[in-house]
């Protein structure tokens, strides 16, 4: 069983080594998809095993609990879809002369490396190691964002590295302050960053220093999760990255960044005061939802529109985390998985549209349904998922978040957030209708769907539907993970 | 000794704000890295801990030589970027802002000092926090891409200094991970700056804002 904890980060690392050694080959590309599946399976198998308590590997450096198991499942699901779609996506790029063998090798190496770093981030037993892994995701994905190599992609990559690194540097200072507070509370220096030790001593930390640390951690990891005020990199990076990478960044990386805060919340809350953390998350979450919704209303670019929708959902997730009840955290985790799957479908469909139109301008894309049934339907389903239309799972999660807000007597938050969610809904749906419906012009380009992308779109849509009908065996792990974070 | 070193870090940060010649700034960053490395070496020598001296030696290589050398290479290749000609905030305004930031640094560090008031190292923490705030300010106030890389490196120096002053350094594995991340981040920024120059002809960030809403 403990070997499974080790398998999750090692499988993608092995795929990265394979791709680095052999270059962009079918076997190395498929290797990444298989590694991603291995991550998901290890999460699924670990889920019941860690229900009783965390399991460790690598001399206690890695630690799996229900929250890590749930996140492994999300990373595995989105990772497998995105990397399998990447197989023919990159082939098509090479065939079109947009990418050469050297860049393809880099892509093949960095994608599994990125998966591996995310896995380490959710499995780290030491909050310093967790920090290093989250920062590593930035460094690894920088060249993926800039992969297409033209002006806008390089500018986006630069902005991404600079803003995320600064944000995450603040989180390191927060981590150091927490270390200092733990040492002062009598924790031996060697263990003062261990999650279990910190949890055991959480009540004894100095309140003032812990508050300072909590503020820095909130803003720092918030930057990685796309929360205001360090959100400005998000739309640039997510829109400029190759589509499978956009899916990974929007679908899981944001959630992995946020999960650092979920991990730290039970450490910080006793000393800093539950209200302190709650207010911080609430303010950041509401501001994020508001900014994202307003930017959605003026959006003229397809991929940026999807990126701002991710930001809106991260804001909702922060609001759910601020409530912090078991119901809210469970809803948040379901939201993360459903959003990850929906966004993957959306970014892959959008990527296909981008390649065939050689543009991401919403005004350039018309009558998609009439030209490609597959792309049209999967895009429509994806939008239905992320705007939380029933029967999709995000409807259930948003209703649960709303109920938990009402339970916590935060009706005004519900009202304010509801207005912005409606604005975002209108903006997304009206643009989607404009792109999908209508009769095609005579000169409209044909929409060519690479085969592996087509497979992933079908599987992704089916997965969204299935998750909408029932969370099935996932309900157990979601509840256990929620119990770890949420108090009551 | 600790106060002297922490104070020097702050003075160097102010010199970096004052200068506009990027090559001079990179040299100053190297000096700042050396002063930073002197912290664990001085600690180690005083308490007789060889590991601390080893950590200091590694920091000396990384922060006084390797990281500035990466920056220096990019600066040397880029004629246009050698001088920050039109920053968003002028020199006088920047130094004034730094004065405000230093006061702010003392204010926000108060709870930390109150927790261990008789420790000279902890009392020097505000200097490191001030360097951090000045670094963030530099990144916001300048236009050349490389000036932002300078700010990022200074920010990282500040956090490493804070870690040493607060806790005599963080556990080795975290320190190692953090240092590797910074090294790779600088390499990535170096490569990106080179590519940007090839594609745009310069690295003035305000001229490459086509990604807007």
Relevant terms:
heterodimer; A: 488 residues; mainly alpha; 19 helices; B: mainly alpha; 79% helix; globular
Account of the 3D structure:
The complex is a heterodimer of chains A (488) and B (213). By secondary structure, chain A is mostly helical. Chain A has helices at residues 2-22, 26-49, 66-95, 101-123, 127-145, 151-184, 195-201, 207-224, 232-240, 243-272, 274-297, 302-323, 326-357, 368-371, 373-386, 393-407, 411-436, 451-469, 474-485, and strands spanning 55-57, 62-64. The model of chain B has no long low-confidence stretch (mean pLDDT 89). The relative contact order of chain B is 0.15. Classes of the chains: A mainly alpha (488), B mainly alpha (213).
Summed up:
The complex is a heterodimer of chains A (488) and B (213). Chain A is 78% helix and 1% strand.
């Amino acid at each position: 069983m403990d070997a499974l904890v080790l398998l999750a980060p090692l499988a993608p690392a092995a795929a990265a080594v394979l791709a680095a050694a052999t270059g962009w080959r079918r076997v190395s590309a498929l290797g990444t998809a298989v590694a991603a599946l291995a991550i998901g399976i290890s999460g699924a198998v670990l889920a019941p095993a860690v229900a009783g308590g965390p399991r460790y590997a690598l001399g206690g450096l890695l630690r799996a609990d229900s929250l890590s198991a749930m996140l492994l499942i999300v990373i595995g699901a989105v990772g497998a879809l995105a990397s399998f779609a990447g197989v023919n996506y990159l082939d098509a790029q090479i065939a079109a002369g947009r990418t050469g063998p050297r860049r393809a090798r880099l892509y093949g190496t960095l994608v599994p490396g990125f998966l591996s770093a995310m896995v380490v981030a959710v499995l780290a037993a030491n909050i310093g190691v967790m920090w290093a892994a989250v920062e590593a995701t930035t460094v690894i994905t920088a060249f993926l964002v800039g992969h297409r190599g033209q002006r806008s992609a390089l500018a986006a990559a630069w902005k991404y590295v600079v803003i995320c690194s600064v944000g995450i540097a603040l989180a390191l200072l927060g981590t150091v302050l927490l270390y200092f507070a733990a040492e002062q509370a009598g924790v031996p220096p060697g263990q003062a960053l261990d999650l279990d030790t910190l949890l055991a001593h959480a009540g004894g930390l100095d309140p003032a220093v812990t508050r300072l640390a909590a503020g820095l951690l909130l803003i720092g990891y918030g930057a990685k999760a796309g929360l205001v005020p360090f959100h400005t990199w998000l739309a640039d990076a997510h829109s400029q990255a190759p589509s499978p990478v956009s899916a990974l960044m929007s679908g899981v990386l944001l959630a992995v960044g946020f999960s650092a805060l979920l991990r730290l919340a039970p450490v910080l809350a006793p000393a800093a005061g539950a209200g302190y953390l709650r207010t911080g998350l609430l303010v950041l979450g509401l501001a994020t939802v508001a900014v994202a919704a307003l930017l959605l209303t003026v959006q003229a670019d397809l991929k940026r529109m999807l990126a701002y929708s991710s930001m809106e959902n991260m804001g909702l997730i922060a609001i759910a985390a601020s409530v912090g009840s078991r119901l809210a955290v469970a809803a948040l985790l379901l939201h993360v998985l459903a959003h990850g799957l929906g966004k993957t479908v959306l970014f892959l469909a959008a990527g296909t549209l981008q390649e065939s139109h050689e543009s991401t301008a919403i005004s350039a894309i018309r009558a998609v349904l009439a030209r490609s049934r597959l792309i049209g339907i999967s895009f429509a389903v994806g939008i239905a998922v992320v705007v939380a239309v029933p029967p999709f799972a995000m409807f259930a999660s948003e209703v649960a978040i709303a109920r938990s807000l009402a339970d916590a007597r935060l009706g005004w938050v519900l009202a304010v957030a509801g207005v912005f969610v409606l604005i975002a809904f209108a903006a997304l749906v009206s643009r989607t209708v404009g792109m999908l419906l209508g009769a095609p012009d005579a000169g409209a380009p044909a929409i060519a769907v690479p085969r592996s992308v087509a497979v992933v779109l079908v599987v992704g849509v089916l997965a969204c539907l299935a998750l909408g009908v029932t969370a099935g065996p996932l309900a157990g792990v979601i509840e256990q993970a929620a119990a770890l974070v949420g108090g009551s | 000794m600790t106060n002297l070193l922490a104070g020097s870090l702050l003075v160097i940060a102010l010199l970096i704000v004052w200068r506009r010649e990027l090559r001079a700034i990179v040299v100053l960053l190297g000096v700042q890295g050396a002063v930073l490395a002197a912290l664990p070496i001085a600690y180690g020598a005083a308490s007789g801990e060889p590991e601390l001296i080893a950590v200091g030696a590694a920091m000396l290589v990384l922060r006084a030589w390797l990281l500035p050398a990466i920056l220096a290479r990019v600066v040397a290749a880029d004629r246009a970027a050698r001088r920050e000609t039109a920053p968003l905030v002028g020199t006088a305004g920047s130094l004034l802002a730094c004065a405000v930031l230093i006061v702010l640094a003392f204010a926000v560090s108060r709870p930390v000092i109150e927790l261990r008031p008789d420790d000279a190292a902890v009392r020097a923490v505000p200097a490191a926090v001030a360097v951090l705030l000045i670094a963030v300010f530099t990144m916001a106030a300048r236009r050349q891409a490389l000036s932002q890389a300078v700010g990022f490196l200074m920010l990282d120096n500040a956090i490493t200094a804070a870690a040493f002053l607060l806790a005599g350094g963080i556990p080795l594995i975290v320190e190692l991970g953090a240092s590797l991340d910074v090294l790779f981040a600088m390499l990535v920024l170096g490569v990106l700056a080179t590519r940007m120059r090839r594609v745009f002809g310069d690295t003035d960030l305000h001229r490459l804002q086509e990604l807007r809403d």
